[in-house]
Amino acid sequence: MTLKTQTIHTYTEAVEIINKVGILPLAPLFDDFPSLGGLTKKEAWHSDTEEDPWKWRTKFAAEGHAAYGKFLKKKAVFISKDMLPLMLAAKSFSHESVQERYKKGEVSREALTLYSIIEQQEGIDTRLLRVEAGMKEKEKKKPFDQALLELQGNLNIVVSGTKEKQDDNGEKNGWSSTSYETMKHWCEKNAIPKIRLTREEAREKLLSHLSVYTTDQTMKKIKKVI
Fold first, then answer.
1. 172: in domain
2. Full residue range of the structural domain in which residue 85 is found
3. For the chain, how big is the Rg over CA atoms in Å?
4. Which residues pair with 180 in a beta bridge?
5. What's the pLDDT at 161?
6. What pLDDT sits at residue 155?
7. What are the Cα distances from residue 142, in Å, to 47, 73, 215?
8. DSSP one-letter code for 194
9. How many domains does the chain have?
10. Residue ranges of the chain with per-residue pLDDT less than 50
């Protein structure tokens, strides 16, 4: 049985797959490349059982198995602890702070504002973040969402979990809200090491590893986003 045709049923199996592949999209992202959605049964999703992959997604991050966020093509991806140092090193700007890149015109004002708040309140949830950033108004939702995508795409922040909306009695009231923390904070608390490789060296090792799990045609697409 190949990885592509394999079906997983448990959280433990999913962790093993993430560790093996290194980078695993939540839903199918590239042709002929594994994803959590492609490796699990459709009926298990949103079943609210122990076999529900939707429940696993933030657990991977909370337990330190993988960084989770919309890192590639604005889509949710898991990056294993072992692969994360390579991914960070492969980004040419990883050694620069968000503030430094903002001064160079490479980061939007909205992204800088959100990052500064998240940096001061690690694990802040989306609802509170919008309030703190002064972006609670309906017309500011789009730039708020775009700034979050920008920070995730630049590997500046990660999803740290979800927080339930509660009423005055502490009862669940409405949809859960995503919470975020800085990549730096997540790496520090999970003891992610830094590696001394050039961007080219890190990218070459990363792509070489991923090529084992897909076709040459798909690798051409992956190279465009890594």
1. yes
2. 11-223
3. 18
4. 124, 159
5. 87
6. 95
7. 30, 17, 36
8. P
9. 1
10. 1, 166-170
For residue 58, count other CB atoms closer than 10 A to its CB: 17
Domain for residue 3, yes or no?
A: no
Strands (E), the chain: 23-25, 66-72, 75-80, 124-125, 157-163, 177-182
Task: Tell me if 197 sits within 8 A of 89, measured CB to CB.
Answer: yes
Say how far apart CA 176 and CA 157 lie, in whole Å: 19
Please say whether the dihedral angle defined by the alpha carbons of residues 19, 78, 186 and 127, taken in this order, is positive or negative: negative
Q: Which two tokens stand for residue 74?
A: 């604005």
Angstrom distances, CA of residue 36 to CA of 17, 54, 116, 210: 9, 10, 32, 16
Instruction: Indicate the residue type of 1.
Output: M
Residue 4 lies inside a defined structural domain of this protein? no
Query: Tokens 């009695």 map to which residue?
Result: 169
- For 173-192, write each residue's pLDDT tens digit: 556 789 999 999 999 999 99
- The residue type of 84 is L
| pTM for the full predicted model | 0.91
Tokens of 35: 């994803």
Q: What is the pLDDT of residue 164?
A: 62
pLDDT of residue 91: 82
Tokens encoding 59: 């657990």
Strands 177-182 and 66-72: unpaired
Q: What is the pLDDT of residue 147?
A: 97
Element holding 84 (H helix, E strand) = helix 84-90
Q: Which residues pair with 181 in a beta bridge?
A: 158
**Minimal CA–CA distance to 109: which of 49, 151, 59?**
151
Residue 6 domain-assigned (yes or no): no
